[in-house]
Automatic annotation (TrEMBL):
<dbReference type="GO" id="GO:0006559">
    <property type="term" value="P:L-phenylalanine catabolic process"/>
</dbReference>
<dbReference type="InterPro" id="IPR036282">
    <property type="entry name" value="Glutathione-S-Trfase_C_sf"/>
</dbReference>
<dbReference type="Pfam" id="PF13409">
    <property type="entry name" value="GST_N_2"/>
</dbReference>
<dbReference type="InterPro" id="IPR036249">
    <property type="entry name" value="Thioredoxin-like_sf"/>
</dbReference>
<protein>
    <submittedName>
        <fullName>Glutathione S-transferase</fullName>
    </submittedName>
</protein>
<dbReference type="Pfam" id="PF13410">
    <property type="entry name" value="GST_C_2"/>
</dbReference>
<dbReference type="GO" id="GO:0004364">
    <property type="term" value="F:glutathione transferase activity"/>
</dbReference>
<dbReference type="InterPro" id="IPR040079">
    <property type="entry name" value="Glutathione_S-Trfase"/>
</dbReference>
<dbReference type="InterPro" id="IPR004045">
    <property type="entry name" value="Glutathione_S-Trfase_N"/>
</dbReference>
<dbReference type="GO" id="GO:0006749">
    <property type="term" value="P:glutathione metabolic process"/>
</dbReference>
<feature type="domain" description="GST N-terminal">
    <location>
        <begin position="4"/>
        <end position="84"/>
    </location>
</feature>
<dbReference type="GO" id="GO:0016034">
    <property type="term" value="F:maleylacetoacetate isomerase activity"/>
</dbReference>
Length: 215
């Protein structure tokens, strides 16, 4: 099988890149990584040369290009059906897809006010309307799934659904948004995953600074 290539952006800031990278790396899927950093507000022309949308992440497998983080995870789940990217049970797969899509399409207040930043020291900020609602909904999703599965991850074993929420774990921590014990325990579980640690180490070593993401 041809080795796929995953194009990503800055590990310190790119929440969209983090998701499929965490999923593939966390489940032992071999791929080539190509990092194209953000350069300015107009976008890096090297990204536009690779991606039809002018954005990353993008997975290239042979001549096929797949963009959007959830689409990449879904494609990889078909390509590597035994890797565990999705739960084996059909009902649980459907639930994993539902919460992953909700993460992809919702929580705009949280995304806007609290950008991912792996290097940011933990500190609170003034939060606009809507952030607390987003945080509460995400905590409810995590709590319900962990109670149902028994943990330590959302569907028991680590899966693509956990990867979809990985950037939120960083946001919750660095902006000091949560204090529930079950939420903090899940966050610690995610941060202890070897794939998380590998990404964070690389992120902290990056030289690039994006001022608009330095809240």
């Amino acid at each position: 099988m041809d080795r796929p290539t995953l194009y990503i952006a800055n590990k310190n800031y790119s929440s969209w890149s983090f998701r499929p990278w965490m999923a593939l790396t966390g489940l032992g899927i071999d791929f080539e990584e190509v990092l194209i950093p953000f350069d300015d507000a107009a976008g890096n022309p090297n990204i536009k040369a690779v991606s039809p949308t002018g954005r990353v992440p993008l997975l290239q497998h042979g001549t096929l290009k797949i963009w959007e983080s959830l689409a990449i995870i879904e494609y990889a789940a078909e390509l590597y059906p035994d890797a565990g990217l999705l739960p084996a049970d059909r009902a649980q797969r459907s639930l994993a897809r539902s919460v992953s899509m909700e993460m992809l399409s919702s929580f705009r207040a949280l995304r806007s006010a609290c950008p991912m930043n792996m290097r940011r020291p933990k500190a609170r900020i003034a939060l606009p309307d809507g952030v607390d609602t987003d945080v509460g909904r995400i905590e409810t999703i995590w709590r319900d799934l962990l109670q149902q599965s028994g943990g330590p991850f959302l569907f028991g074993a680590f899966s693509g659904a956990d990867a979809m929420f990985a950037p939120v774990v960083n946001r919750f921590e660095i902006y000091d948004l949560v204090n529930r014990r079950d939420t903090l325990t899940y966050m610690q579980t995610m941060k202890a995953h070897p794939a998380w640690r590998k990404w964070e180490e690389a992120a902290r070593a990056e030289p690039w600074i994006v001022p608009e993401d330095e809240v």
